[in-house]
Amino acid sequence: MSKNMTISKYISYLFLISICAAWAIPVIFGLTTSFRSQTEVINSGFRLLPLEWIMDNYRAILDNTSTAPIVRWLGNSLYIAILHTFFVVVVISLTGYGYSRMKFRGRDTMFFVLLGISFFPPVVNLIPSYKIIDALGWVNTSWAMIVPGLAGMGNIFLVRQFMLGIPHELDESARVDGAGDFRIYFSIILPLMKPVLIVCALFSFVGSWNDFLWPVIVYTDVDKMPITAGLLLLQDIYGNYRMIGQLMGSAMLAIIPTLLLFFFAQKYFIQSINLNSGIKG
Amino acid sequence: MKKKLALPLALVFLAVAVLSGCSGEDKNTITFWTPLTGEDGAYMNQLVENYNATNPEFKVKHIVTADMYTKLSTVLNTGKGVPDLAIIHADRVPGYVEQGLLEEMTTILAAQPEIKEENYLPQAWATGTVDGTQYTVPLDIHSNVMYYNKDLLAKYGAESFLDDNVVTIDEMLSLKGKLETGHYVVNDALIGWVILAQIQNLGGDIQENGKPAVNTPVMKQAFEEIKKVADAGLMTPFGEDGFLQFQSGNVLFSTDGTWSSTAHASVEGLNFGVTNVYSATPEKYTNRASSHLFAMLTNKDRSDEKEAGIGNFLEFIRQNSLEWAKAGQIVASKEVIESPEYKEYMQSFFTSNEEQIKSLYIYTYEHYPYIQEAIDQNAADLVRGNVDMDETLAKMQKQVEDKIAQGSSGAQ
Amino acid sequence: MAMKRKLMPAFFVGPHLILFIVFVLIPTVYGIYASFTQWNLNSDPVWTGLDNYRTILFDSESTFYRQFWNGLKNTLLFVALSVPLLIIIPLMVAVALEHKKVKMKGTIQAIIYVPGLISISAAALIWSLIFNKQLGVSSNVFGSDAVWSTTQPYAWMIIIILTIWGGVGGNMIIYRASINGVSKDLYEAGDIDGAGPIRKFFSITLPSIRFPLIYTFVMTTAGAFNVFGQPLMLTDGGPRESTTVLMMYIRQLAFGHGDSIAGMASAMAVLLGVVILVISALQYYVMNRNAN
């Protein structure tokens, strides 16, 4: 058996190492390209590391502070992402509980109708969405970034699926003991949901961080923009990548916050996590 | 009971109510939207700063927008937050005028005697004239041009191509069999624009009595001429990045834009110059161009005083837009391009004489955007002989006609 | 008390319902309305009834018919190529990471997750440089002669590679978290029965994570139907419009350079929505039935 274990260990390692290499090389290449001069990018072919490390690309990005207050944009993004994520967790845990544990007529039908509606690709929705934001007076405010995303169905679907995997015994017995929905939600379901909520929080943080078309529409004030929308302003109108190193540099700057959050969050879903905790029984 | 229900609703509405933080539009500020991202935005910022430093009554606030036309649609739908001034591209003018989205420049022209046709490059000015009314004032012309690698031209004895300012396809073909492996005569950057230039060179047009003319003998000839270059193996291979190939010194000519000169200049050891886009005939050369234009979108709230302020700003730009030359663009104001400082910029080549100026061709046909879209979509496949030419041209013609029938201007 | 019972659901699902109506339902209904009109986005839409649908679905002469069916065909191809990989690869990673003796789990996980954070334009640029014949690995390392972005099947391959590279991280996290939660007792019982790793995977792991699995299948598929960034940046829809997916046509109609043809674009989007709906409903139905 332990021999079996050793073989499977090597197979696992082999698979993981090859996939990591395949995944990491383009990232490293992208990262190091942000330290290359245009001359090197076009002349030296594919090399993982630059011949000569230069900071010019980052200097050019950071220098341009009149049009591009990058630090500010980072701050704006952080503010929006944190608030958005907080609200998401509140909304999806409540709603997820509602659609999986509460009994009311037409519950599942309603859920699937909402989910189905959310599958229609938003194309011209931009115009009515903007009108609504305008009617609420949220143009040029962070609410335009924080609130509409709370209406999404994806995370609620995930929470619901997760809750389906948790046997009803725990909450049933609590209900027999006379606990109301609030108590069941707070003291039984919420702790069980923690892992899936962390996953959802991570997803929505990344999502709100990376959303760039909508912020371009709802913000006119450059100073209030989140970083991904702001970085678009640094790129060329002609869509040509005139300065490859700079484009890479700004893309790398933009991933720092999400990366940090990921390292923080992954502790939780590696160690204490039980997405299917109920199965333990 | 009700309290408990009220709580969540209150929370939602609280969020709604908390920030109705309106950014009150300053009455004495001209909001000015441009699609000028990247370095261009920084040069425009500098111009606006210079203007504001003159302490005008109405200061200009420059707002760069990554997706300006979509954003314009959203504000036009609410009727709120429409900018006082915007920069739009030449090919938007006919559609916008048709839809009644542009304000006439008449009052501004009356108040600013120097903002007049004679003081600008004629085609840039004319782009904004619809049925005798002026709707825009030009900032620049940005054009498809042809860069050449001086060292490679010398190496292959091709410097004589430049003598008459028109590099012909025949001249290019004469290099067949003479190049080292990995070297090419020309790349396929902006190939759609190159095609559009040949249509002019060959004496054709993209419209006939207001009807789109895509599936025409001239269009076919334009494609066939350029296809000759690709067939001879002189064009950078299909799908390879011709722009980078030029920068890495493997290509004699690059048909990209005026705005690329700054990027080319950043490459060490690239010894380059600029000339006209190659032509199918020695008689004529054309550089397909577009223009950045100042325009006022329809907005009832724009006061007459503010309009006068806009006039002052435009007059300032007319006199002082040398800064814009740094972006690589051909400045539209004659006062600027006739100044000695402007002559130091590479693109001054295109305004060095009357014939050169004429070579910058801006299509003003109202359905031009659909035609360019169809050409861009199919040019690469056509030039590389990947598709049947007659069939594809017929498909393109149909596509443009169908879109015109559906687009608003065609509907009414 | 009965009253309270009735109102309780409103507390739990009500806030989201309001948000949904305001920010999803109303815009979607407006989009559906627009699909029955001729509209340039700037002025008021003009009602044209079923014309757009008739043109797209039945007028075989029309450009919009050609674009819709070509786009749909390419989109379906993309979905069929990408979705299985976007499910299987992260599942394999999650299972391999679950191995007791494997170390550096966090680092491995992070490496696979990071590409998803890189903006699509930068990601596409990285991969086009890698596959650039002159500069990149495809010729330097693999000695491949073809220019990938303009030759089939390579054009699809680079699109799929970019998609997989950037797309497996999310599902990996869901699987990772799900598998982590499977009771260790079950595996120990499996060990006692002498079950090998493959049998344990099929008889313990898969059934235990069936609900999250359904979620990833449905949502990954729906996401793949909306693709446009990867083909747009890598192949520009070519060669010969063979990688032009439906979303690219739709976006070009609505936000192209000429007058917007938003009504037609909306009609195509609605039809795409119907396709997504039917396919995800089928997926859900089949998988859910098997799961129970």
Automatic annotation (TrEMBL), chain A:
Transmembrane segments: 12-31, 78-99, 111-130, 142-163, 184-206, 243-265
Pfam families linked: BPD_transp_1
Keywords recorded for this protein, A-Z: Cell membrane, Membrane, Transmembrane, Transmembrane helix, Transport
InterPro entries, sorted: MetI-like, MetI-like_sf
Signal peptide: none
Membrane topology: Multi-pass membrane protein
Protein name as catalogued: Carbohydrate ABC transporter permease
Organism for this UniProt entry: Paenibacillus sambharensis
